[in-house]
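Quick note —
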Amino acid sequence: MNDLSGLVQVVDRYEGSVPVCELRGELDASNVDQVLERVLGSVATEAPGIVVDLERTSYLDSAGVRILFELARRLRSRRQELRISVPREGIVRRVLVLTALADVVALDDDVARSVDALQTRT
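Predicted structure written out below.
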């Protein structure tokens, strides 16, 4: 676990061959660059992609949305996929849908579904 800027913690782990980065707290302009580098560093080149778990993310501003778009772009260039696990009900999911990130990145209701989807790619 890594505490970045006191507002967000990044907890990374593997579920099978799939890396999962859980973001706990607030993702905003003060910490997005650190979070992006941390998440990218968690993805091995042989992994099918990564799951970003936003279940415990309480706040996400436009800078946070921007880095999720950037993360998806970088992973696509490496032939990997970004999947986001975020509860169906809640402000964070609404933000992702309103900003059209949901048109670019698959949103799953829980980590298990995201992991299953990535494992079927291999």
